């Protein structure tokens, strides 16, 4: 028997032992994933084909729920609201986070303090942010309109005018920009100083250095935030629900704030249409996957990886 | 190639599929309906019963809970405080581990009953010999569904007219100008009491309290939003459209709903800085419990009260409130029934009222009464009231009078959808997105569709 023949089974045995050990080590996660993620996902696919009200047994209705999705005008409205919010909020979030991170990166003293200060608002519970929105953006006595008043601007009715509800939510969303600031700041600290030194020798100013060195060097981080923020925006729920459908307004609501996740929640837990809500969830999943896929393709050439594009 | 990874993957998917196959509801008829034999006024109970959605946070609650607990003859009561969490409640029923009692709004009962989440109380009422004639008829009709009583009414809420006496006087008006008996006078009064220097609203002349009080405005023209059998929506009838047009026009006359709502939201509603104490509101219809709040936090506020009246001058109020229901699969329905019964008995309410009276006396404040779903208890408690002088005595008199002139919406299996339909329509009009007729036409379609589907589901489940 040749040596290569004896080595092959041994390699397979070693690989099997290592794989088994690896699987055993990650088995707590696998079990958690199966029970708390995989099962609900598979189950929701099944429920989306049923009429189910939580209490009584689901009854199979085929693709009726999916047909209803296309006949329900509120689905289109909720998708549109969510899309507009995402288009406004994701770039605003990224630009503000990048700006603050650049400022912090340039600070020579008390950066730790500022980093904490910027991150602290992120600790505010989303429900409190929803209530805060109603206070800050109150058209009569809110701080935002008071600030605009200083410049002689008569602020809008942010919380009731359908044209201003989404901008108010976008601005309020900046309250939680701190986590992105910290992530971008970490990326900024990883940009090699020699690149800036060389650019300085060549006479590049701050703006040119930022545009030509900083942004390309941290583009993987910006891309990561772009994807994560987009997914978060498309699933946005708590702040808008609190402000316009929940504790903040028990009877008053505003269609302009009806995000897709809110409509899904209403169908599932207020109207008890769990089957239809499951179909709504699957549609949202497909929409997010499609948008994320498009983002990956379109933004690929703008992202610079030091080790080459994956 | 069958690597260990493939085998593990197959095992994982199989496990997931196996778990999925276990997923189902509890089944509409899996738990037996309690019989009258389970409910015996002489029986004593042991163990612990749990009640979800109720907190004995004041003397009215704690006194009654103590008496109800005592009536069980040994069993303890665990209160799950906070508003009833529907998701939590239904999940517990589906999982077969519900609380023994829930404390729910009466308008939720039809939906819970139609879905089989609660049990009918016919056996409970018969077994415990509960005299249902003592309950407010509107309250009882709100919890009667398919010919059976599904819950025991508890508190009651009605609306009266509340006004700022100083603003009325300054404008040369009286409470009769804003009590609803003349809609033209309300419009005129709203304009007279309004203060908006430079376009900035400082005083709301009249708040018609939309969207929540549309049923009241509609009923004052004789229209019900829902037919008496709970099956037909009547949202786009000419009277409802007219009521909505009028209530919205009140806001339009004051610069629009957005401004009124912004000022309303900026007020300290439950505190000393409330709209009446700050002279920021002329008048509005409001639920009676707010009289007690105002008396407590701003006893010197210049108030005037009357019932809300129809254009014919007749008092009118929309009755709503809370109730006790027993979930399907409750482990101790006998004790739950006894608890619900005792919580709402005349003597129990009287004991609670006495505790409130004693507390108010100690604080040198008047006892301004409480409204319950029990008409006999209300009559007895009315005799216990202490004078707080004017305007408070007028306020208390107004809400007791309103309580005798109520209406309510019947129980139905799609209450949330129905309410969402008409409130959504009102909100679209208030937000300037729709005209009243168009908004209510659409609401009518949505509400009727929801009602038809829900009633079909109920018929299917019960046949």
UniProtKB/TrEMBL annotation, chain A:
Among PROSITE patterns, the record links this protein to: ABC_TM1 (PS50928)
Q: Which residues form the ABC transmembrane type-1 domain?
A: 79-295
What is the scientific name of the source organism?
A: Nonomuraea fuscirosea
Please provide the record's keywords in A-Z order: Cell membrane, Membrane, Sugar transport, Transmembrane, Transmembrane helix, Transport
Q: Which InterPro entries match?
A: ABC_transporter_permease (IPR051393), MetI-like (IPR000515), MetI-like_sf (IPR035906)
Q: Where in the cell is it found?
A: Cell membrane
Matching entries from PANTHER family are given as: ABC TRANSPORTER PERMEASE PROTEIN (PTHR30193), ABC TRANSPORTER PERMEASE PROTEIN YESP-RELATED (PTHR30193:SF1)
**Gene Ontology terms: biological process:** transmembrane transport
Q: Is the keyword Mitochondrion in the record? A: no
Classify the protein's membrane topology as the record does.
Multi-pass membrane protein
Q: What Pfam families does the entry give?
A: BPD_transp_1 (PF00528)
Report the domain of life of the source organism: Bacteria
Which cellular component appears as one GO term in the record?
A: plasma membrane
Residues that span the membrane, as ranges: 21-42, 83-106, 127-148, 168-188, 209-228, 279-298
**Family according to the record:** Belongs to the binding-protein-dependent transport system permease family.
This chain belongs to which protein, by name? Multiple sugar transport system permease protein
From TrEMBL, chain B:
Tell me which stretches of the chain form a coiled coil: none
Q: Which UniProt keywords apply?
A: Signal, Sugar transport, Transport
Signal peptide positions on this chain: 1-23
Q: Which InterPro entries match?
A: Bact_solute-bd_prot1, SBP
Q: Which domain of life is it from?
A: Bacteria
Q: Which Pfam families match?
A: SBP_bac_1
Q: Which PANTHER family match?
A: ARABINOSE-BINDING PROTEIN-RELATED (PTHR43649), DIACETYLCHITOBIOSE BINDING PROTEIN DASA (PTHR43649:SF12)
Give the protein's recorded name. Answer: Multiple sugar transport system substrate-binding protein
């Amino acid at each position: 028997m040749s040596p290569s023949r004896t080595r092959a089974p041994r390699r397979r045995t070693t690989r099997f032992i290592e794989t088994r050990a690896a699987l055993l080590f990650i088995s707590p996660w696998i079990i958690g994933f199966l029970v708390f993620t995989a099962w609900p996902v598979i189950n929701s696919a099944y429920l989306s084909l049923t009429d189910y009200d939580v209490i009584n047994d689901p009854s199979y209705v085929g693709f009726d729920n999916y047909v209803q999705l296309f006949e329900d005008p509120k689905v289109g409205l909720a998708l549109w609201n969510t899309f507009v919010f995402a288009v406004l909020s994701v770039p605003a979030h990224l630009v503000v986070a990048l700006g603050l991170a650049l400022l912090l990166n340039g600070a020579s003293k008390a950066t730790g303090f500022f980093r904490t200060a910027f991150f602290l608002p992120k600790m505010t519970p989303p429900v409190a942010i929803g209530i805060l929105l109603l206070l800050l953006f109150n058209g009569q006595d809110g701080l935002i309109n008071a600030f605009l008043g200083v410049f002689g601007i008569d602020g809008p009715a942010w919380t009731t005018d359908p044209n201003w509800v989404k901008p108010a939510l976008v601005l309020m969303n900046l309250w939680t920009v701190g986590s992105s600031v910290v992530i971008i700041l970490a990326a900024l600290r990883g940009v090699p100083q020699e690149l800036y030194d060389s650019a300085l020798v060549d006479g590049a100013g701050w703006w040119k250095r930022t545009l030509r060195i900083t942004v390309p060097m941290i583009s993987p981080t910006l891309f990561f935030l772009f994807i994560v923020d987009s997914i978060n925006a498309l699933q946005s729920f708590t702040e808008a629900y609190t402000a316009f459908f929940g504790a903040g307004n028990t009877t008053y609501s505003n269609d302009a704030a009806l995000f897709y996740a809110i409509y899904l929640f209403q169908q599932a837990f207020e109207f008890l249409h769990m089957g239809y809500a499951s179909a709504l969830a699957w549609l949202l999943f497909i929409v997010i996957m499609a948008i994320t896929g498009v983002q990956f393709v379109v933004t690929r050439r703008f992202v610079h990886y030091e080790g080459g594009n994956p | 190639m069958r690597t260990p990874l493939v085998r593990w993957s197959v095992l994982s998917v199989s496990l997931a599929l196996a778990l999925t196959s276990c997923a189902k509801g509890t089944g509409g008829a899996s738990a037996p309906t309690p019989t009258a034999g389970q409910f015996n006024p002489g029986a004593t109970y042991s163990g612990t019963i749990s009640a979800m959605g109720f907190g004995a946070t004041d003397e009215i609650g704690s006194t009654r809970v103590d008496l109800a607990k005592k009536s069980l003859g040994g069993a303890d009561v665990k209160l799950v405080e906070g508003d009833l969490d529907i998701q939590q409640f239904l999940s517990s029923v589906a999982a077969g581990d519900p609380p023994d009692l829930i404390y729910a709004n009466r308008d939720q009962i039809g939906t819970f009953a139609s879905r089989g989440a609660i049990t009918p109380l016919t056996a409970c009422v018969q077994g415990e010999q509960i005299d249902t004639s003592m309950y407010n008829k509107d309250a009882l009709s709100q919890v009667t569904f398919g010919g059976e009583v599904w819950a025991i009414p508890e508190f009651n809420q009605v609306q009266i007219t509340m006004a700022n006496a100083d603003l009325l006087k300054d404008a040369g008006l009286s409470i009769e100008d804003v009590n609803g008996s003349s809609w033209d006078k309300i419009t005129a009064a709203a304009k007279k009491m309004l203060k908006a220097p430079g376009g900035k609203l400082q005083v709301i002349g009249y708040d018609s309290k939309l969207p929540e009080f549309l049923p009241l405005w509609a009923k004052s023209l004789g229209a019900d939003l829902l037919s008496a059998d709970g099956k037909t929506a009547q949202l786009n009838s000419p009277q409802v459209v007219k009521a909505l047009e009028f209530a919205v026009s009140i806001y339009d006359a004051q610069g629009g709903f957005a401004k009124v709502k912004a000022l309303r939201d900026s007020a300290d509603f439950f505190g000393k800085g409330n709209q009446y104490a700050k002279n920021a509101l002329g008048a509005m219809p409001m639920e009676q419990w707010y009289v007690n709040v105002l008396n407590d936090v701003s006893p010197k506020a210049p108030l005037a009260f009357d019932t809300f009246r129809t254009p014919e001058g007749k008092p009118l109020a929309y009755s709503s409130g809370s109730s006790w229901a027993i979930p399907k699969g409750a482990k101790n329905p006998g004790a739950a029934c006894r608890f619900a019964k005792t919580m709402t008995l005349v003597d129990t309410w009287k004991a609670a009222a006495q505790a409130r009276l004693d507390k108010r006396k100690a604080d040198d404040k008047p006892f301004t009464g409480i409204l319950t779903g029990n008409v006999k208890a209300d009559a007895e408690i009315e005799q216990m009231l202490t004078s707080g002088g004017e305007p408070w005595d007028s306020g208390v008199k107004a809400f007791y009078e309103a309580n005798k002139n109520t209406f309510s919406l019947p129980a139905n299996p799609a209450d949330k959808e129905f309410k969402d339909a008409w409130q959504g329509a009102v909100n679209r009009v208030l937000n300037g997105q729709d005209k009243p007729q168009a908004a209510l036409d659409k609401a009518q379609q949505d509400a009727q569709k929801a009602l038809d589907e829900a009633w079909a589901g109920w018929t299917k489940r019960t046949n």
